[in-house]
Design brief:
The chain is of the alpha+beta class. Helices cover 50% and strands 22% of the residues. The protein has helices spanning 12-21, 31-48, 72-90, 92-112, 129-143, 159-167, 189-197, and strands at 2-6, 53-58, 61-69, 115-120, 148-153, 170-174, 180-185. A four-stranded antiparallel beta sheet has the order 1-2-3-4, with helices on both faces. Strands 5-7-6 form a three-stranded antiparallel beta sheet, with helices on both faces. Strand 6 and strand 7 (180-185) form a beta hairpin. Helix 2 runs antiparallel to helix 3 (72-90) and helix 3 runs antiparallel to helix 4 (92-112). It is globular.
Length: 200
C-alpha cells in the first residue's frame, strides 16, 4: 500500500533520481543536464526546507514527492548564492533561463506564499498520487497560515495544466514565453481532502 509521509534523509538520492528521470526528455542523454534538473528543481528544498517535503512511499521506498518553499527570502538568497552558480558551470543558456525562473518564483512567492514542485516516477503514474500529494501539502500549508500555493506551467496545452485546473487551480498571471502562473486558494482544500484523502 502506498502512503504519504514526511521526507526523511534516506529519501534524498531516490527523490533526486525521480526528479532527473522525469525531467525534459532531451536532457536525459547528458549527465550535466540531468544534474541541472535536480539542482534547479529539488536540491534547495532538501537542503534548506526539508520540513516542507512530502513523499509517496511504496513499501519503504519513495516513488513520488512534493516540495514547497515557505521562505521566499531564503529561497531567493540561496538560489543566487549556491544553485545558480552551479548551473552557470553547466550552461550559460540554462543559467539565464534559471535566473529568470528564480526571479519569477520570487515575485509570485511574495504574492501567494508557497511555490511547489511535484513528481511521481513512471511506474506509479495513474495511482492518483499527484492529487494526494497536492492535498497533503495543501493541508500542511494551510495549517502554517499560508493562503495559496502556486506553480508556473508552460502553457494551456500541457497535460499538467488540465491536471491542476481540475484540482482547483486558477490562472493568476502570465510569465513570458507563453507560460502561465496558477494558484490554488487553500481555503478550499477541505473539499479535496474529502475527494482524495478520505477515500483511500
Amino acid at each position: 500500500m502506498i502512503t504519504i509521509r514526511k521526507f526523511e534523509e534516506k529519501d534524498r538520492e531516490t527523490i533526486r533520481k525521480i526528479c532527473m528521470d522525469t525531467g525534459k526528455k532531451s536532457f536525459q542523454h547528458s549527465e550535466k543536464k540531468r544534474d541541472f534538473i535536480a539542482i534547479m528543481w529539488i536540491d534547495y528544498y532538501m537542503d534548506f526546507e526539508p520540513e516542507n517535503i512530502f513523499v509517496a512511499d511504496d513499501d519503504g521506498t519513495a516513488c513520488g514527492y512534493i516540495v514547497s518553499s515557505t521562505n521566499s527570502e531564503l529561497f531567493y538568497q540561496k538560489m543566487k548564492e549556491i544553485y545558480l552558480p552551479k548551473i552557470k558551470k553547466i550552461s550559460l543558456f540554462l543559467h539565464l533561463f534559471s535566473k529568470i525562473a528564480v526571479k519569477t518564483s520570487y515575485k509570485y512567492d511574495k504574492k501567494y506564499g508557497a511555490d511547489f514542485h511535484i513528481n511521481v516516477d513512471d511506474a506509479h503514474q495513474g495511482h492518483k498520487l499527484g492529487p494526494k500529494l497536492l492535498t497533503t501539502l495543501g493541508v500542511y500549508l494551510k495549517e502554517k497560515g499560508v493562503t495559496h500555493m502556486y506553480l508556473v506551467t508552460a502553457n494551456r496545452k500541457t497535460r499538467g495544466y488540465g491536471f491542476y485546473t481540475h484540482f482547483g487551480f486558477e490562472e493568476v498571471g502570465k510569465c513570458g514565453g507563453g507560460s502561465i502562473a496558477l494558484a490554488f486558494d487553500l481555503s478550499k482544500i477541505d473539499a479535496n481532502v474529502k475527494k482524495y484523502l478520505n477515500n483511500n
